[in-house]
């Protein structure tokens, strides 16, 4: 099966992009996201518990309201180094055209240094479903019903 191919307008805000800092790209043919790289002026060290907004040096314009961008963490960085996204997931609306910034948070026990060009997050493009709210008095019954958080157990 072939993946959906979309055109994405990209504006380079930092002259290092495409030269010293590679443009976003998928790491493998099977990668769901494109790696986003850090573009700070100089290496940035986050002490345990610290956070910073790190520039990527680029802006995107999706344009089609049927799509949005999600900026998600790179799992290896969170697990091995404690570097995660401070807002967990960033949503990029189709009409946003400003700079992409990554909220980085060091949740680990040791300092983490982010250098220009480091891969610090991923950009996914996902379809957006538009909904119409339909007011009802009751829901159709289900096996779960109104059982809340944890109601289905662990095993």
Automatic annotation (TrEMBL):
Substrate binds at residues 74-76, 87, 91-93. Its EC number is 3.6.1.23. Pathway: Pyrimidine metabolism; dUMP biosynthesis; dUMP from dCTP (dUTP route): step 2/2. SUPFAM superfamilies: dUTPase-like. Keywords: Hydrolase, Magnesium, Metal-binding, Nucleotide metabolism. GO terms for biological process: dUMP biosynthetic process; dUTP catabolic process. GO terms for molecular function: dUTP diphosphatase activity; magnesium ion binding. The keyword Magnesium applies. Residues 20-153 form the dUTPase-like domain. Its cofactor is Mg(2+). This enzyme is involved in nucleotide metabolism: it produces dUMP, the immediate precursor of thymidine nucleotides and it decreases the intracellular concentration of dUTP so that uracil cannot be incorporated into DNA. Belongs to the dUTPase family. This is Deoxyuridine 5'-triphosphate nucleotidohydrolase. It comes from Aerosticca soli. The gene is dut.
């Amino acid at each position: 099966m072939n993946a959906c191919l979309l055109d994405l307008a990209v504006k380079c805000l930092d002259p290092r992009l495409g030269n010293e800092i590679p443009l976003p790209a998928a790491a493998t043919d099977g990668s769901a996201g494109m790696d986003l790289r850090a573009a700070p002026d100089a290496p940035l060290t986050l002490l345990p518990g610290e956070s910073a907004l790190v520039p990527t040096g680029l802006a995107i314009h999706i344009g089609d309201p049927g799509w949005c961008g999600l900026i998600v963490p790179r799992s290896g960085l969170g697990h091995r180094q404690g570097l995660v996204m401070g807002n967990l997931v960033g949503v990029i609306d189709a009409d946003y055209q400003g700079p992409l910034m990554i909220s980085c948070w060091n949740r680990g026990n040791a300092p983490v240094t982010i250098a220009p060009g480091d891969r610090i997050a991923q950009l996914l493009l996902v379809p957006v479903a538009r909904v119409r709210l339909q007011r009802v008095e009751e829901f159709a019954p289900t096996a779960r019903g109104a059982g809340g958080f944890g109601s289905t157990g662990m095993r």
